[in-house]
Amino acid sequence: MTFEQFLYMGGYGDYVWSSYSLCFIIFFANIATAILNKRNTIKMIKTRLENTSHDT
Amino acid sequence: MFQFFFKLAAAPNFYRFSSKLLPWLAVSTLLVIVVGLYHGLWLAPADYQQGDSYRIMFVHVPAAWMSMFIYIMMAGSAAIALIWRIKLADLFVISSAPIGASFTLLALATGSIWGKPMWGTWWVWDARLTSELILLFIYVGIISLYNAIEDKRSAAKAIGILTLVGLVNIPIIHFSVEWWSTLHQGPTVSKLDAPSIHLSMLIPLLVMAVGFKLFYLTIVLLRMQNHILLQEKNSTWLARKADEL
């Protein structure tokens, strides 16, 4: 099988590759939101801790 | 053994334990999915009826399985949370919901893309497709309800009940292809005696299914860690551990 044939997918290339691209996007979105949420929370906690330590 | 689980259920211990687990999970998820893609897209032969279009199956079917699997896990966890008041179980429910919703969306979208060349239509209002769409609405409803209630402990209780009520939809999705006539094909893998799918196609399908499960576990742990941090933001262990975060 050549690389062109692989991309062509027997004429179904558009359908197959759009499905796999969607899958990639969904996976990426899951990873990105999970990491960003956690990072933001950690940032929030650290600023809170700094503020309280200044008060005392 | 029980002692171990009780200790693990405490937020700081769970946070530490999952932090150790996460890199291993992430690496194994990546490895399994790469192997699955290689087998599914390159090694497996074309289907004698559907040609290469059937390769959509290797993302469509695992996504559809996950949409139901995650929901069942959530319902089990919601029951545990309501009966034994285990906070971690509540966090598992709300952390799973967005992942479940995204897999449901993926199953619907890839099914639609597969339906166009094979059935000649993007969408039909038959039982399988409609009940899966309802599952997506239930997931979205769970997430919205949690966000709408200010007090997060009442919010967790509310979505726990909603999750258990919505469980009725799961057997409907599963048996819809047997109960009603539909364009969607019947089950080919879960027939215990002999799956009517060739081994060269079954292997990548199962590998991808394992990969999707590992991915879910990775993301749900990350999301649970985030919810633990939010919930424990005033506790002393967090103040002591802040530098290590």
Q: How much helical structure, as a percent, in the residues of chain A?
A: over 70%
How many DSSP H or I helices of chain B?
9
User: Number of helical runs of chain A?
Assistant: 2
Strand runs of chain B, count: 0
Q: Report the uncertain regions of chain A.
A: none
Radius of gyration of chain A: 22 Å
By helix and strand content of chain B, what is the structural category? mainly alpha
Query: How does the major sheet of chain A shape up?
Result: none
Walk me through this protein's architecture:
The complex is a heterodimer of chains A (56) and B (245). Helices cover 88% and strands 0% of the residues of chain A. Chain A has helices at 3-8, 13-55. Chain A is built from two helices and no strands. By secondary structure, chain B is mostly helical. Chain B has one domain. The A-B interface holds A 1, 6, 9-13, 15-16, 18-20, 22-23, 26-27, 29-31, 33-35, 37-38, 41-42, 44-46, 48-49 and B 41-42, 46, 51-53, 55-56, 59-60, 63, 98-99, 102-103, 105-106, 109-110, 113-114, 116-117, 215, 219, 222-223, 225-226, 229-230, 233, 238-239, 242, 245.
Would you summarize the structure shown here?
Helices cover 88% and strands 0% of the residues of chain A. Chain A contains two helices and no strands.
How is this fold's topology laid out?
The complex is a heterodimer of chains A (56) and B (245).
Chain A: H1 3-8, H2 13-55
Chain B: H1 2-9, H2 11-43, H3 57-84, H4 87-119, H5 127-148, H6 152-166, H7 169-179, H8 199-231, H9 236-241
Helix pairs in contact in B: 2-8, 3-4, 3-6, 3-8, 4-5, 4-6, 4-8, 5-6, 5-7
